[in-house]
Write a structure and sequence with these properties.
Largest sheet: 2 strands, antiparallel
Strand order of the largest sheet: 1-2
Number of strands: 2
Order of helices and strands: HHHHEEHHHHHHHHH
Radius of gyration: 22 Å
Length: 293
């Protein structure tokens, strides 16, 4: 009953319907008041995770739902098996946060398992050479793994932006993803870029500047590696340039120019000269910009 009803509500969740849908989900979550193990709340959090990680598109709205649930969860909801340092059951918003952090950790460990990462990375390599892979079960399974991994990283980042996860946890994620640049899989590179795109502006503070400098030193190493595909090198270069622009996206710059100039400048780009990698790609493809009309 809970699974079917809440899943139907989550399928309808959008920013426009947020107040109505979130209120109904919270009513279901608070039914755990009558339980000693918080099983209804756990079930609902798992459903939210399933929806949030299935694609990065809706990460923000599901993170906002979690924030609303934590704010409005009944203090009577508790789990006798989860206790604080004084030996008392954790309840209400503290219990919700505990469940949420556990879910993030479990999801990350699943997504980071050697077999999972290697399967997705192997699919990336095969996809470039074997057209038949596009129609195989192996291909679709690897695509699902990749989608869920990126969805989880984006969701975790959105939770952090809403102050539901700590800065320390975010640094742990980044450090884990970039721990071994010499043997980094493409899956981990893409997740690193996704996470830094989502939370980089919030992490790049004066206090954490030294940590960020280390991360970007590793990223610059990767852009020069012969073991990293050109696609991944582009992605890494984009995140380097994003930081150089103080975390302002190209789209935001274009929109700002369009507003101030009163004209469409979408084709003009950021005004910056082509990067080393883009020049490399242009040369590889036989493109001579000076000959283009």
């Amino acid at each position: 009953m809970v699974h079917r009803k809440v899943k139907a509500l989550l399928n309808k969740l959008t920013m426009e319907k947020f107040d109505s849908i979130s209120g109904q989900v919270i009513v279901w979550a608070n039914k755990s008041e009558k339980e000693k193990d918080g099983r209804t709340l756990i079930q609902i959090i798992r459903l939210v995770f399933e929806h949030a990680i299935d694609g990065a598109t809706w990460s923000e709205v599901y993170a906002r739902l979690c924030r609303e649930m934590m704010n409005r969860i009944s203090p009577k909801v508790q789990d006798e098996g989860v206790k604080n340092s004084e030996g008392n059951p954790i309840a209400g918003d503290q219990l919700f946060r505990k469940y949420l952090c556990n879910g993030c950790q479990e999801g990350y460990e699943r997504a980071s398992g050697d077999g999972v990462a290697k399967a997705a990375n192997q699919q990336n390599k095969e996809g470039r050479t074997e057209e038949v892979a596009l129609f195989s079960d192996k291909y679709y399974a690897a695509q699902k793994v990749k989608r869920h991994g990126l969805g989880l990283i984006k969701f975790v980042g959105e939770l952090f932006k809403l102050q539901m996860l700590t800065e320390h946890i975010m640094h742990n994620y980044v450090e884990t993803l970039l721990v071994n640049v010499e043997h980094l899989e493409e899956v981990e590179i893409e997740r690193s870029c996704k996470l830094l795109t989502t939370v980089g502006a919030h992490l790049d503070t004066q206090k954490a500047r030294a940590h960020m400098d280390v991360y970007f030193s590793r990223i610059k190493e990767l852009t020069k590696s012969q073991n990293v595909s050109l696609r991944m090198q582009f992605m890494l270069q984009d995140i380097i340039e994003l930081r150089e622009r103080n975390w302002v996206s190209r789209d935001a710059i274009v929109a700002q120019k369009r507003g101030s100039d009163g004209r469409d400048v979408a084709g003009s780009g950021s005004g910056a000269p082509p990067s080393r990698l883009r020049k490399k790609a242009q040369k590889a493809n036989g493109i001579n910009l000076s000959n283009k009309l």
